[in-house]
Amino acid sequence: MKIITGETEYFKSLKQVTYEGLESDNPLAFRWYNPQQVIAGKTMAEHFKFACAYWHSFNGDGGDPFGGATHHFPWDRQADPLARAKDKMDAAFEFMTKLQMPYYCFHDVDLIDFSNDIEKNEQGLQSMVEYAKGKQQESGIKLLWGTANLFSHSRYMNGAATNPDFHVLAHGAAQVKAAIDATIALGGENYVFWGGREGYMSLLNTNMKREQEHLAKFLHLAKDYARKNGFKGTFFIEPKPCEPSKHQYDYDAATVISFLRQYDLLGDFKLNLEVNHATLAGHTFQHELQVAADAGLLGSIDANRGDYQNGWDTDQFPNDIMELTESLLIILEAGGFQGGGVNFDAKIRRNSTDPLDLAYAHVGGMDLFARALVTADKILTQSEYKKIREERYASFDSGAGAAFEKGEHSLESLRDFAVANGEPAVISGRQEYLENLINRYI
Question: GO molecular function terms here (predicted)?
Fold first, then answer.
C-alpha cells in the first residue's frame, strides 16, 4: 500500500509496516499478519478487513472524568474547523497507509466538528466527504462502515430514536440521513447503529414499549431511505447493556436478535459485536459470537478488551491469545463475517503519549488476530476438537435420539424410553482436556 501524506508528515518516525515473520525482533513489523497468506480458503486480508476507528485514534485526547487531555495532536491546532478536519484526515490516511490498514470507520462528528445548525453540519460533512473521496482513491483504503453519533450532544441525554420528545427524534433523523448519504458517497460497505442512550435511567418516567416501537420505526425509515438511494450494504446493530444509560435496549446479542425478529428487521440487519460490551453484559465474547452465528447474523466485530478490575468500558487493545483463538474458532466455523470485518474500537492509554504508541497498539492487535487465525485453523483441521464435540451429541445422530430431533416422539414415548433403558451413564465433558488442546496449538 502506497504511503499517503499531506503537506505535513505527522508520523515521521513511523515507516511502512510490513510482514517480517517470526524471526523478526522489529516491534513495528508484523510477525504473524501476512495479508496475502491463505488460511481456510481466504487471505488474511479477506478474513479480517482490518479497520481503524477514526474516533479513538484521531479524536480521543486521553481525557477522562477526572482529568483533561494528555494527547495533544499536531493535526488539531488550526482554528478553522474545516482546515483542522482536513489536517486530521491527512494524519489518519498517513497512519493507515503506513500500517497497511485497508479500511476505516467513522461517526459523522469525527470527520468535522458539528454545531447546532443542521444545514451547516451537512455542508461541513459534505466537504469532508469530498476530501475523503480523494484520499480513498489515492490510497485504496475503503470505508467499512459509517454511523451517526446520537449520544454525545446534550439534546440526546434521553436518547435519540427513543427520546420522549419528538423534536429530538427529528434531529436524530437529520443526522442519520446525512451520515447515510456520506456512507453511500464514500462506498461504505455497511452502516452501524449503536444506541448509546437508546434506553432508560428510570422506569418511573419511561414508557418502554412505546420507546422500543419508536426505535423500530426509526430503523425502518433509515433502512428504507438508504435502500431507496442505492445503499446495498448491511446494517449493523451493536449491542451494549449499559453505560451511559442504566439499561440500554440493545442489551446483548440475544436481546437484539429478538428485537429485530419482533419488528421485522432481520432481512436487513445483522450484529456488530464488541468484546468489552460482551463482558459488561455478563457474557464472554465467545458467547456473543456464538449467539449471533447460530442466528446467521454475525456481521462484524469491534476489537478491544476490558479490564477485569474495572466494571466499565475501558476499550483497551486486544492482547489475550486464548480468548481470541476461541473466538476465531467460532468465526471460522460460522464461515466468517457477513459483510463486516475487524474494527479496532480501542484507544491507547491516557499515559501513552508517544505517537508511536498508536502504531504499537495496532500492530500488536493485527498480529494477535493473525496468530489466533492460524492457531484456530490448525485446531479445526488437525486436532480432534470437532470430533470430541460431535461425539458428545452422538446419541442424537441415530435411533431414538434422531427420532426426537425429527419430531417423532411424544412425551409419553420419551418416558417409556427412559424406563426401558434405565439410568444413563455418566460421560465426561472433557473441558480441561479441550482447554489444554487449545493451549498446545497456541
Answer: xylose isomerase activity
**Using an 8 Å Cβ cutoff, are 80 and 112 in contact?**
no
Q: For residue 166, what is its C-alpha cell?
A: 419528538
How big is the chain, counted in residues? Answer: 442
How does residue 286 score in pLDDT terms, banded at 50, 70 and 90? very high
Angle at 181 between CA 102 and CA 151, to 5 degrees: 85
pLDDT in tens, 64-121: 989 999 999 999 999 999 999 999 999 999 999 999 999 999 999 999 999 999 999 9
Q: What stretch of H or E contains 168?
A: helix 166-185
Residue 130 contacts by C-beta under 8 Å, 6 or more apart in sequence? none
Kindly report the CATH number that applies to the domain delimited by 38-371.
Answer: 3.20.20.150
Q: How far apart are CA 115 and CA 219, in angstroms?
A: 24
Indicate the domain borders of the chain. 38-371, 385-441
Residues taking part in catalysis:
107, 110
- Count how many Cα atoms sit within 13 Å of the Cα of residue 225 in the half-sphere of its side chain: 18
Bridge-based pairing state of the strands 234-237 and 142-147: unpaired
pTM: 0.96
268 is in an annotated binding site: no
